[in-house]
Amino acid sequence: MNSLAATHEILLKERTSSIRRGLMDRINRDSRLIAVKGSRGVGKTNFLLDFSKEYYAGDDSCLYVNTNNLFIVHDGLFHFVERFHKLGGKVLLLDQVYKYPGWDKELRACYDAFPDLQIVFTSSSIVRIKSNPYLKGIVDMYNLSGLSFREFLELETGKCFPAYPFSEMVEKHEEIAASILKQVRPLAYFGNYLEYGYYPVYLEQKSHTDYLLKNINLTLEFDIPYVSQIELKYLKKLKQLLYVVATDSSCNVNISRLSSAIGVSRATVLNYLNYMHNARLLTLLYEEGSDDESGRKPKEMYIHNPNLLNAICLDKVNENILQKSFFLSQLCAVNRMNYTDEADFLVDGQYPVLVCQEGKGRKAQDSVIVMEDMIERGKGHVMPLWLAGFTY
Fold first, then answer.
1. Interacting residues of 287 by C-beta distance below 8 A, sequence separation 6+
2. pLDDT tens track for 370-389
3. Domain total for the chain?
4. Does 295 score more than 90 pLDDT?
């Protein structure tokens, strides 16, 4: 236990983050069991360390541990937690717990046995937490997204910017944009964000594209098969489908066409799309009132964020799809997004939104919110696209 505590201290000392993730304020610290889900590279480990540093600095009753540790694998998770509790432990931060066999059952046993112990654990975005029979009703779950454009600007400039609900942006976007423009010229940083700014690890990586492609392959080759039990011989089909989606400028979900393109059944295509949606490689859009559990097929599909799209397509990126991917990646973290015939997207069942290049949406009806790229300020129902990056 002493060696684990020493490792915890070393990790905290090495943690030199200059940004505080907004999710920190949304965590219910009174909850006894907290799950932080996220895709590869969004910073789940660093979030646990920052949680420890902010709320339990110098407190020996809080311990960070990676459950891949052989000590835990040998003794068992429950017995490790029991020992930690006996030694006065109060807060346990468990990283990558979902890779431990029977993790959900043992977490439930810990929850029942130690009522004065708080456990915060990280999980892959693929893993279903809320519907898990052992954890249902006792776990508070949070999704950690990649860096918003706002958070990226904070890292790049050292300045602080508030986040705004999309509804407030619609009403006050001219005023909000003016206040931001007093401190920074967002468009000077926007291109870099689209290329590599979504994943905080960009600060440590020299080759952003290589890193992203490696993460994509790890997700497809290890994460998805680990949870979904896909046979290895079908991994090529998953990769083919991801590339087909990335290079499809229509974004329409045509199951028959996709089935023919990669040589699998229609049902398999739907399963693959859902796997990659859960892995945060894709974003699937449904009509309002539908979702992936309704049994209906999605209407549109997009690569989850512009960094992934750039890495997959390289110099073949469709600019309008890139703009839409950015908008979705920013709003999906905090808003309900649906397909609509009226525009490109429907936000929270209330705001139809058109995403386009500068000057392309001026003929849209006033009831449609137009998000235009490459403008600093908007007017009326026309808003600058970069401002969508300030929703979280």
1. 296, 299, 338, 339, 340
2. 999 999 999 999 999 999 99
3. 2
4. no
45 and 124 assigned to the same domain: yes
Shared domain check, 157 and 57: no
In the chain the first and final C-alpha atoms are separated, in Å, by 37
Nearest-10 crossing angle of helices 208-218, 306-313: 100
Q: Which domain holds residue 86?
A: 2-143
Q: And the tokens for 303?
A: 């690569």
Tell me what pLDDT residue 302 has.
98
pLDDT level of residue 62 (50, 70, 90 thresholds): very high
CB-based contact 115:125 (threshold 8 Å): no
- For 270-287, how does the pLDDT look when each residue is reduced to its tens digit (9 = 90+)? 999 999 999 999 999 999
Which residue, chain included where needed, has tokens 């040998």? 74
pLDDT at 290 over 80: no
Which of 80, 109, 143 lies at the terminal end of a domain, its last residue? 143
Do 183 and 332 fall into the same domain? Answer: yes
Q: What is the dihedral of CA 145, 146, 149, 151, to 10 degrees?
A: 90
Q: What are phi and psi of 353, to 5 degrees?
A: -130, 135
Residue 166 and residue 311 in one domain? yes
DSSP string, 56-103: -TT-TTEEEEETT-HHHHHH-HHHHHHHHHHTT--EEEEESGGGSTTH
- The pLDDT assigned to 140 comes to 97
Instruction: Say what the pLDDT of residue 351 is.
Output: 98
- φ/ψ of residue 44, rounded to 5: -65, -45
- pTM exceeds 0.85 for this model: yes
Give 346's contacts (C-beta < 8 A, 6+ positions apart).
288, 337, 338, 339, 340, 352, 353
Q: Tell me: do 251 and 346 sit in the same domain.
A: yes
> Cα-flanking dihedrals φ and ψ of residue 86, to 5°?
-65, -30
